[in-house]
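A common beginner's mistake is to predict each chain separately and then try to dock the pieces by hand. The better habit, illustrated here, is to supply every component at once so that their relative placement is modeled jointly.
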Amino acid sequence: MGKILISGAAGFLGSHLANELLRKGKYVIGVDNLSTGQETNLKELRKQHNFTFLNFNICDKEILKIKELGDVTEIYHLASPASPKFYQAFSMDTIEVNTLGTKNLLDLAKKNGAKFLFTSTSEAYGDPEVHPQSEDYRGNVNTWGPRACYDESKRLGEVYCYEYFYKFNVQVKVVRIFNTYSAGLRNDDGRVISNFVLQALAGENITVYGDGSQTRSFCYVDDMIRGLQLTMKTEKANGQIINLGNPDEIAILELAEKIKKLTNSQSRIVFHSLPDDDPKVRRPNIDKAKDILGWNPLIDLEEGLKRTIQVYKTRL
Ligand code: UDP
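With all components supplied together, the output reads:
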């Protein structure tokens, strides 16, 4: 049986994906340098006999010499800080992991003849002037701002994928992941759903940035994990960029009110200043995912939020 490598296995999506692949009886090697990934995410994974963990930085070229990786047949490259709070705090590491780290794993894929999936981001569209965003929209990214370390390095990661696909025939697939959530995020992640749910449950102020009119479209983690696996196994996805996300769009103020209601919270909604370059709208066009993968998100926001709130409640 082929071995599957997941970079960022101690992260939010990486650990969910690893769990799902192990549940299906696959052999998984997780690699992570635990910069933003967490040891707690590995707890269940480490109990499985068909899981191996490597505490390693994929930016180190020595990754190509690691014996256990000599026969991996599929590579899911998820390693990177993804929350604005963390990618801005670790901006240099973010740039490196999405460029050098991507190149090293592409070299590994080339060496092994392995399939390769790169998780890019909706941030590749920046503060979009076209709405909703389809894959052929080239984006409106500010190179001179606090989000550039993430946005531009993911874009350069995509460029590496393009080159390895056309020059070296590596079976590359790129997905642009839109906002994804569940209770698996770390409590200090700083992204909107974990912030609002934790604030609402603790009876603290719910912090809306700006006037809350900016929009996002939120995808529940199970749908995303299914989309990633489908992309990996679909041959027609080779050499393609595919949006994965839930097109159901909501304004951030409305999201705050929804979470307040679902948690029966007495919290007050308060307004803080809007961070620089915060995109005003975001919604994926997922026609390509529907067409190539037959993928569609199944869990709506209300259901996903209920599940998320339930887990956070038991944890608190
Ligand atoms: N946001 C907010 N309050 C928070 C955290 C985030 O109003 O406590 C806003 C943020 O300004 C953005 C949206 O929620 O407009 C989504 O932010 P997040 O950090 O989750 O992800 P982004 O889509 O910006 O990468």
